[in-house]
Prior knowledge:
The chain has helices at 6-15, 28-41, 62-73, 90-98, 113-129, 147-151, 159-169, 193-202, 217-225, 235-250, 256-274, and strands at 20-24, 45-49, 80-87, 103-106, 133-138, 173-176, 207-209, 228-233. The protein is α/β, with parallel strands linked by helices. It is globular.
Amino acid sequence: MAIEKVSTILGMADKAKTSVLAFNCTDYSTIKCVVDVAEELKKPVICMLYPEHAADKYWTNPRIFAETVQSVAKNAYVPVGIHLDHCTSFDYMVAAIRDGFDSVMFDGSMLPVEENVRKTREVVRVAKALGAAVEAELGRVGFADNMRDQADADLYTRPEVAAKFCEESGCSSVAVAIGSAHGFYKETPKLDIERLKAINAATDVPLVLHGGSGIPDAQLDVAFREGINKFNVGTEYFYLYYQTMQKFCAEGRPDFFDLQLVVQDALRAYLRKKMLLCKMTV
Length: 282
Protein backbone atom coordinates (compact mmCIF):
# COMPACT_ATOMS: atom_id res chain seq x y z
CA MET A 1 0.00 0.00 0.00
CA ALA A 2 2.88 2.37 0.80
CA ILE A 3 1.85 6.05 0.86
CA GLU A 4 -1.89 6.37 1.38
CA LYS A 5 -4.11 9.41 1.81
CA VAL A 6 -4.61 10.30 5.47
CA SER A 7 -8.35 10.66 4.86
CA THR A 8 -8.45 7.06 3.63
CA ILE A 9 -6.51 5.82 6.66
CA LEU A 10 -8.87 7.64 9.03
CA GLY A 11 -11.84 6.15 7.23
CA MET A 12 -10.38 2.69 7.79
CA ALA A 13 -9.91 3.44 11.49
CA ASP A 14 -13.45 4.76 11.83
CA LYS A 15 -14.87 1.64 10.21
CA ALA A 16 -12.81 -0.55 12.57
CA LYS A 17 -13.83 1.58 15.61
CA THR A 18 -10.24 2.27 16.56
CA SER A 19 -7.57 4.92 16.10
CA VAL A 20 -4.52 5.07 13.90
CA LEU A 21 -1.43 6.41 15.66
CA ALA A 22 0.25 9.51 14.26
CA PHE A 23 3.82 10.23 15.33
CA ASN A 24 5.65 13.52 15.12
CA CYS A 25 8.93 12.83 13.36
CA THR A 26 11.95 14.99 12.57
CA ASP A 27 14.61 12.93 10.82
CA TYR A 28 15.36 9.68 9.03
CA SER A 29 15.62 7.63 12.22
CA THR A 30 12.27 8.75 13.64
CA ILE A 31 10.54 8.19 10.30
CA LYS A 32 12.18 4.84 9.50
CA CYS A 33 11.42 3.37 12.92
CA VAL A 34 7.75 4.34 12.65
CA VAL A 35 7.39 2.77 9.23
CA ASP A 36 9.42 -0.34 10.10
CA VAL A 37 7.38 -1.12 13.20
CA ALA A 38 4.09 -0.40 11.43
CA GLU A 39 5.15 -2.91 8.79
CA GLU A 40 6.20 -5.44 11.44
CA LEU A 41 2.88 -5.15 13.33
CA LYS A 42 0.75 -4.70 10.18
CA LYS A 43 -0.64 -1.39 11.43
CA PRO A 44 -1.51 1.71 9.41
CA VAL A 45 0.43 4.75 10.60
CA ILE A 46 0.87 8.47 10.02
CA CYS A 47 4.13 10.44 10.07
CA MET A 48 3.63 14.07 11.06
CA LEU A 49 5.76 17.17 10.73
CA TYR A 50 5.36 20.05 13.18
CA PRO A 51 6.24 23.31 11.35
CA GLU A 52 8.40 24.62 14.19
CA HIS A 53 10.61 21.54 13.74
CA ALA A 54 11.18 22.57 10.13
CA ALA A 55 12.54 26.04 10.85
CA ASP A 56 15.63 27.24 9.00
CA LYS A 57 17.89 26.30 11.90
CA TYR A 58 16.94 22.62 11.61
CA TRP A 59 17.85 20.13 8.91
CA THR A 60 14.44 19.44 7.42
CA ASN A 61 11.64 21.22 5.60
CA PRO A 62 8.28 20.01 4.27
CA ARG A 63 9.69 18.90 0.92
CA ILE A 64 12.58 16.93 2.45
CA PHE A 65 10.25 15.45 5.06
CA ALA A 66 7.67 14.29 2.51
CA GLU A 67 10.35 12.86 0.24
CA THR A 68 11.94 10.99 3.16
CA VAL A 69 8.64 9.42 4.22
CA GLN A 70 7.86 8.50 0.61
CA SER A 71 11.29 6.92 0.18
CA VAL A 72 11.14 4.93 3.41
CA ALA A 73 7.57 3.78 2.78
CA LYS A 74 7.83 2.97 -0.92
CA ASN A 75 8.18 -0.77 -0.30
CA ALA A 76 5.88 -0.95 2.72
CA TYR A 77 2.81 -3.17 2.63
CA VAL A 78 0.94 -1.07 5.19
CA PRO A 79 -0.67 2.34 4.56
CA VAL A 80 1.57 5.22 5.61
CA GLY A 81 0.21 8.76 5.75
CA ILE A 82 1.96 12.14 5.67
CA HIS A 83 0.41 14.95 7.71
CA LEU A 84 1.36 18.52 8.60
CA ASP A 85 0.67 19.12 12.30
CA HIS A 86 -0.44 22.38 13.98
CA CYS A 87 -0.15 25.21 11.47
CA THR A 88 -1.64 28.70 11.29
CA SER A 89 -0.04 29.96 8.06
CA PHE A 90 -2.19 29.63 4.95
CA ASP A 91 0.83 29.98 2.65
CA TYR A 92 2.83 27.37 4.59
CA MET A 93 0.00 24.83 4.32
CA VAL A 94 -0.44 25.39 0.60
CA ALA A 95 3.32 25.03 0.05
CA ALA A 96 3.35 21.83 2.12
CA ILE A 97 0.54 20.36 0.03
CA ARG A 98 2.50 21.13 -3.12
CA ASP A 99 5.53 19.47 -1.50
CA GLY A 100 3.72 16.17 -0.95
CA PHE A 101 1.43 16.48 2.08
CA ASP A 102 -2.12 15.32 1.39
CA SER A 103 -3.28 16.30 4.88
CA VAL A 104 -2.69 19.50 6.82
CA MET A 105 -3.91 20.83 10.14
CA PHE A 106 -5.14 24.38 10.42
CA ASP A 107 -5.16 25.24 14.11
CA GLY A 108 -7.64 28.03 14.70
CA SER A 109 -8.49 26.89 18.22
CA MET A 110 -7.27 30.16 19.77
CA LEU A 111 -9.64 32.19 17.59
CA PRO A 112 -13.30 32.98 18.25
CA VAL A 113 -15.41 30.13 16.87
CA GLU A 114 -16.84 32.09 13.96
CA GLU A 115 -13.38 33.22 12.86
CA ASN A 116 -12.10 29.66 13.26
CA VAL A 117 -14.92 28.48 10.99
CA ARG A 118 -14.21 31.16 8.40
CA LYS A 119 -10.46 30.59 8.24
CA THR A 120 -10.80 26.80 8.30
CA ARG A 121 -13.25 27.03 5.40
CA GLU A 122 -10.75 29.11 3.41
CA VAL A 123 -8.04 26.49 3.92
CA VAL A 124 -10.47 23.67 3.07
CA ARG A 125 -11.47 25.37 -0.20
CA VAL A 126 -7.89 25.56 -1.48
CA ALA A 127 -6.73 22.24 0.00
CA LYS A 128 -9.65 20.40 -1.58
CA ALA A 129 -8.78 21.87 -4.97
CA LEU A 130 -5.26 20.54 -4.51
CA GLY A 131 -6.46 17.09 -3.42
CA ALA A 132 -5.69 17.46 0.29
CA ALA A 133 -7.66 17.06 3.51
CA VAL A 134 -7.81 19.51 6.41
CA GLU A 135 -7.80 18.72 10.11
CA ALA A 136 -9.22 21.50 12.28
CA GLU A 137 -9.23 22.03 16.03
CA LEU A 138 -12.12 23.11 18.22
CA GLY A 139 -11.81 23.76 21.94
CA ARG A 140 -8.50 24.25 23.69
CA VAL A 141 -5.98 21.42 23.77
CA GLY A 142 -3.33 23.44 25.58
CA PHE A 143 -0.18 22.50 27.46
CA ALA A 144 0.18 19.95 30.22
CA ASP A 145 2.33 22.22 32.38
CA ASN A 146 -0.76 24.41 32.77
CA MET A 147 -3.31 22.45 34.79
CA ARG A 148 -6.13 24.70 33.64
CA ASP A 149 -5.61 23.66 30.03
CA GLN A 150 -5.98 20.04 31.05
CA ALA A 151 -8.73 20.23 33.67
CA ASP A 152 -10.96 23.22 32.89
CA ALA A 153 -14.08 21.79 31.26
CA ASP A 154 -15.04 25.27 30.06
CA LEU A 155 -12.20 24.94 27.54
CA TYR A 156 -13.43 21.58 26.24
CA THR A 157 -15.20 21.05 22.92
CA ARG A 158 -18.97 21.36 23.11
CA PRO A 159 -20.91 18.79 21.04
CA GLU A 160 -23.45 21.24 19.64
CA VAL A 161 -20.71 23.68 18.63
CA ALA A 162 -18.71 20.84 17.04
CA ALA A 163 -21.70 19.80 14.93
CA LYS A 164 -22.14 23.31 13.53
CA PHE A 165 -18.40 23.85 13.14
CA CYS A 166 -17.82 20.70 11.09
CA GLU A 167 -20.79 21.38 8.84
CA GLU A 168 -19.90 25.02 8.18
CA SER A 169 -16.12 24.65 7.88
CA GLY A 170 -16.09 21.53 5.71
CA CYS A 171 -13.12 20.09 7.63
CA SER A 172 -12.17 16.46 6.99
CA SER A 173 -11.42 15.74 10.67
CA VAL A 174 -11.42 17.69 13.91
CA ALA A 175 -9.19 17.64 16.97
CA VAL A 176 -11.29 17.83 20.11
CA ALA A 177 -10.59 18.96 23.66
CA ILE A 178 -11.75 16.37 26.18
CA GLY A 179 -9.08 16.56 28.87
CA SER A 180 -5.77 16.03 27.11
CA ALA A 181 -2.90 18.51 26.71
CA HIS A 182 0.45 18.74 24.94
CA GLY A 183 3.65 17.77 26.76
CA PHE A 184 4.28 15.85 29.98
CA TYR A 185 1.40 15.83 32.45
CA LYS A 186 1.77 17.05 36.03
CA GLU A 187 -1.17 14.85 37.00
CA THR A 188 -2.68 11.84 35.25
CA PRO A 189 -5.28 13.14 32.80
CA LYS A 190 -8.87 11.98 32.95
CA LEU A 191 -10.54 12.04 29.56
CA ASP A 192 -14.17 13.13 29.44
CA ILE A 193 -15.51 10.05 27.68
CA GLU A 194 -19.17 11.07 27.98
CA ARG A 195 -18.39 14.33 26.21
CA LEU A 196 -16.49 12.38 23.54
CA LYS A 197 -19.52 10.16 22.97
CA ALA A 198 -21.72 13.21 22.55
CA ILE A 199 -19.30 14.86 20.12
CA ASN A 200 -19.04 11.66 18.10
CA ALA A 201 -22.83 11.39 17.91
CA ALA A 202 -23.14 15.03 16.83
CA THR A 203 -20.51 14.96 14.07
CA ASP A 204 -19.79 12.86 11.01
CA VAL A 205 -16.03 13.37 10.62
CA PRO A 206 -13.17 11.44 12.24
CA LEU A 207 -12.15 12.82 15.64
CA VAL A 208 -8.54 13.46 16.65
CA LEU A 209 -6.94 13.39 20.10
CA HIS A 210 -3.83 15.48 20.69
CA GLY A 211 -1.56 15.35 23.75
CA GLY A 212 -0.94 11.62 23.62
CA SER A 213 2.12 11.36 25.88
CA GLY A 214 1.09 10.04 29.27
CA ILE A 215 -2.59 9.17 28.90
CA PRO A 216 -3.22 5.73 30.47
CA ASP A 217 -3.78 2.98 27.92
CA ALA A 218 -7.07 1.94 29.54
CA GLN A 219 -8.51 5.41 28.86
CA LEU A 220 -7.23 5.35 25.31
CA ASP A 221 -8.82 1.97 24.61
CA VAL A 222 -12.21 3.44 25.53
CA ALA A 223 -11.61 6.72 23.67
CA PHE A 224 -10.69 4.85 20.50
CA ARG A 225 -13.86 2.77 20.68
CA GLU A 226 -15.96 5.88 21.24
CA GLY A 227 -14.84 7.93 18.26
CA ILE A 228 -11.14 8.89 18.30
CA ASN A 229 -9.71 7.86 14.92
CA LYS A 230 -6.35 9.65 14.99
CA PHE A 231 -4.12 9.80 18.05
CA ASN A 232 -1.11 12.14 18.08
CA VAL A 233 2.13 11.26 19.87
CA GLY A 234 5.23 13.43 19.99
CA THR A 235 6.68 14.33 23.38
CA GLU A 236 7.33 10.75 24.57
CA TYR A 237 8.90 9.81 21.26
CA PHE A 238 11.27 12.76 21.12
CA TYR A 239 12.21 12.52 24.79
CA LEU A 240 13.13 8.85 24.40
CA TYR A 241 15.39 9.82 21.49
CA TYR A 242 17.09 12.43 23.68
CA GLN A 243 17.41 10.13 26.71
CA THR A 244 18.96 7.38 24.60
CA MET A 245 21.50 9.76 23.09
CA GLN A 246 22.32 11.19 26.51
CA LYS A 247 22.89 7.75 28.01
CA PHE A 248 25.05 6.68 25.05
CA CYS A 249 27.26 9.76 25.34
CA ALA A 250 27.53 9.44 29.13
CA GLU A 251 28.92 5.94 28.63
CA GLY A 252 31.77 7.45 26.59
CA ARG A 253 30.95 5.52 23.46
CA PRO A 254 32.55 7.46 20.59
CA ASP A 255 31.08 5.88 17.47
CA PHE A 256 28.44 8.12 15.84
CA PHE A 257 27.11 5.28 13.68
CA ASP A 258 26.63 3.03 16.70
CA LEU A 259 24.64 5.88 18.24
CA GLN A 260 22.15 5.80 15.38
CA LEU A 261 21.65 2.05 15.78
CA VAL A 262 21.18 2.32 19.54
CA VAL A 263 18.66 5.13 19.10
CA GLN A 264 16.70 3.18 16.52
CA ASP A 265 16.60 0.08 18.74
CA ALA A 266 15.15 2.14 21.59
CA LEU A 267 12.59 3.85 19.37
CA ARG A 268 11.44 0.56 17.86
CA ALA A 269 10.98 -1.03 21.30
CA TYR A 270 8.78 1.91 22.33
CA LEU A 271 6.80 1.86 19.09
CA ARG A 272 6.09 -1.87 19.33
CA LYS A 273 4.15 -1.24 22.54
CA LYS A 274 2.50 2.00 21.51
CA MET A 275 1.20 0.85 18.13
CA LEU A 276 -0.64 -2.07 19.71
CA LEU A 277 -3.17 0.51 20.91
CA CYS A 278 -4.45 0.47 17.34
CA LYS A 279 -6.74 -2.57 17.15
CA MET A 280 -6.76 -2.72 13.36
CA THR A 281 -4.41 -4.80 11.26
CA VAL A 282 -3.97 -4.54 7.49
